[in-house]
Every structure is written in structure tokens, then in C-alpha cells.
Design goal:
166 residues, 5 helices
């Protein structure tokens, strides 16, 4: 996994967001750990952002495409997987209450990058509807059960973007 200040521009940056101590809120980090088991080319950067919010700004600035994985409350059944453009967070297309505190920081970071004319040309968010956000390091059965589907969807997206770049 990567740290801020990397010198090479990544083609695809995958950012896991969440709190591993708050059950389903850690789904983005759990998914990132699963993705890190694959043998990705150097053009793919995996970033564990924790709950950093604006701390992901350097990673978004220095990449051609970005995938952000997080817990998203949008009112569907626990374990529902969402895919939406990062602009949806900024434009508040999501229902009220769908965006967590670190998403709000992400929206501000994304808006700032756009104002500066920087950042990835493509950025999507994969979110999973939580069943439980409470103290605990284990994912709920509903969210743990969809983790393989989330990882496969993100893997496919990465490969698709790498194929288009070559």
C-alpha cells in the first residue's frame, strides 16, 4: 500500500476509506486488503486512507483514474452495493443521510481539485449499505457476504481502465 508523496503518477488509484473499529464502516479497508492480495502492475496504487477525508487529496491529484470504496447509507437493504461517480457526492445526488463525515471531507477535496483543474479524469465510488456501525472489528454477515462481489466489481473496473489506457 502507498503513502502520500509518491513520485510516479498512477494510472489507477484505489482508495479504501473507513474505520476498522466500527464494524461495517470498515468495509472499504477490508475490500482494499482483499485487493492487495492480487498481483497488480505498478500503474495501480492501493491506498488505505482510514478516515482521512481530505488526506486523500494528494492521491486524487496524482492519478488518471480513482476508485474509492466506503460504507454508504442510502436506505437500501444491508449489503447493497452502490456504484456512482464521485461527482454525486459533491452534487449531493445521494439521499439525505447517505454521506458520512469522511465523505463530506471527500466532497470538499474533490471540489477543490476541480477548481484547480487537477485530479483524475475518472473517479467512482463503490459503497456498501451497512447493517451495523458500532464498536467491533468484524463485518456484519450481510456486508461480509457481499465483500467478494465488491472486490470482483472493483477488480473488473481496474482492469477495464488499464485496458483503455494501453
Amino acid at each position: 500500500m502507498d503513502r502520500p508523496g509518491a513520485t510516479d503518477k498512477a494510472k489507477v488509484t484505489v482508495i479504501g476509506v473507513g474505520n476498522l473499529l466500527m464494524a461495517d464502516d470498515g468495509v472499504g479497508i477490508h475490500a482494499l486488503r482483499e485487493l492487495s492480495r492480487e498481483d497488480w502492475p505498478p500503474e495501480v496504487r492501493l491506498v488505505d486512507a482510514g478516515t482521512a477525508g481530505p488526506g486523500i487529496l494528494p492521491y486524487l491529484e496524482d492519478t488518471e483514474a480513482a476508485v474509492i470504496m466506503d460504507c454508504v447509507r442510502a436506505g437500501e437493504a444491508p449489503g447493497t452495493i452502490y456504484r456512482f461517480p464521485l461527482e454525486a457526492v459533491e452534487e449531493t445526488i445521494l439521499p439525505p443521510g447517505a454521506v458520512s463525515l469522511h465523505d463530506l471531507d471527500l466532497a470538499h477535496a474533490w471540489h477543490l481539485l476541480k477548481l484547480l483543474g487537477r485530479g483524475p479524469s475518472r473517479a467512482v465510488v463503490y459503497g456498501v449499505e451497512p447493517a451495523r456501525i458500532d464498536w467491533g472489528t468484524e463485518l456484519s454477515p450481510e456486508v461480509a457476504g457481499v465483500l467478494p462481489r465488491l472486490v470482483e466489481a472493483v477488480s473488473s473496473e481496474i482492469r477495464s481502465w488499464l485496458d483503455r489506457a494501453t
